[in-house]
Structure formats: structure tokens, C-alpha cells
Amino acid sequence: MTIAYLGPPATFTHLAALKKFGSAVKYTECSNITEIFTEVEKGNADFGVVPIENSIEGAVSHTLDMFIDSELKICSEVYLEITHYLLSRKKNLSDIRRVYSNPQVFGQCRRWLEKNIPAAELVEVSSTARAAQIAVEEPDSACIASRMAKDIYNLNILASSIEDIPYNITRFLVIGKTLVEPTGNDKTSIMFSVKDRVGALHAMLTPFKKYRINLTKIESRPSKRKVWDYYFFVDLEGHYKNSSVRNALAELEKQASYLKILGSYPKAEEVS
Q: Given Cys at both, which of 223, 235, 248, 264 links 207, Cβ 3.0 to 4.6 Å?
């Protein structure tokens, strides 16, 4: 079995993949989220692991946008507690001139950075592990990355747990080509677009109230096909094969201009 993830090794996506699949499978690193989808679509990987939302910074828009044109399904989810480390070849904060990490991580550590190294230049890169690689190459630089990155890239820990909010959780999705059978404790993800009329979104949500289906998430993203046209992404409790969910989706489909089931999958145990 081959798993595609956002590389290089030691990214949080890599850690989520290891949590889900262990170390006995083959891992292939990708440079961005689009490449993860492509590797699975082409059959070069059996599954891919992608970030979908963070408890502090919210949804990962790139992942949501990929589902618009992709036929891949959500097969599983993983929650990972995130602890950020400031790593460098240097041993003192005063020596740091630049800090590398990805945009979401900077958002999660903003206050700590402003308080402790306000003069440092913040440089965005594709992943925390790529940031670690650069920190190895640039002596006066640091990165914000995982504890695993410290070990792999032989860096010093200048500070730990630098996230502004301690309860920092990222949710990841496992994507593949097949739909998953019900387990009795499932979640379903869908996307839809509404017809251009007054009260359309309210009407779209009415079937879920009718069949007593709990919605756990709703996000909107521009369709990028027409001005002010949006797709809505919804997570709901239950499996698409459950009668109540099936009936609600059937009513939704009659009213929506577009509906896609992204997948039904077992609920993951949330990190407490």
C-alpha cells in the first residue's frame, strides 16, 4: 500500500499519515496538495492524506477547492494535536534573522512571534518540513516545525509549544477512489451549489432539520466559474446509506443546482 502525503518528511501531514497507517506501508512525498490528489487519481498511490481544517485558523481552502473537480472520495479522517517548535542551527533567539514556515503555522503562532522575535523576517514556504530544510542551510534562520523535524534535520530547539492557543488540533482527510461501508458511527461530507433565488440556502438546509440530521460543519468557497457563485461544503452525522441521510439528500438534490457526495466514513476519535 502506498500513501501520498505533503512532504518532505516530518510535516504534520506526514505525522497524521503515520498515525493512521503506521510505518509498515510505503510513503510517497508530494510538494503540494494538488499533487497528492493527482498521485491518487493516477493510481500511483492508494490513498492520500490532506489537511482540511485547523481549530485556530479554520478551513484549508486549497483542499476544499480540489474536491470541486476531483472524483476522489473521503475514506477516513484523522485528528492530530499540533505542537509547534522553533528550531534552528543557532542556540539563541537573538541570533535569528528569518523564520520559515507555512502560512497557517504563522497564523497559529502570531502573538508568540511578535513578542519574542519581533524583528525577524517571516518567510512563507510550502510546508513545515521544507522550512526545516532551509533552516539547516541558512545558519541565521529558524523554522517552526514539528518535534520530528528536530530529529530528522538535526536542529536545536529554541522554544517549544509556541502556538498562541494550547488546544491546537488539525483535522486531516484520507482520500481514495472507493466509498466506505457504514460502521454505525459515521460522518458524511457533501458539496452543493444553490439556485440563484431569495432564501435558497435556507431551503437547502431544511431537509436536514426535517430528518433530524446534525450538521457539524458548513463552509463556502467561490466556484471560480461565475462571479458571486459559491459551493457549500457540509459535514453531517450519519452515513449516506442510512435512510434518514438518504432521504434528506434526495430532497436536497431536487432543490440544489449541483450536489456531490464526497464520502461517508467512520468518525475519528477527537483529541481532547
A: 248
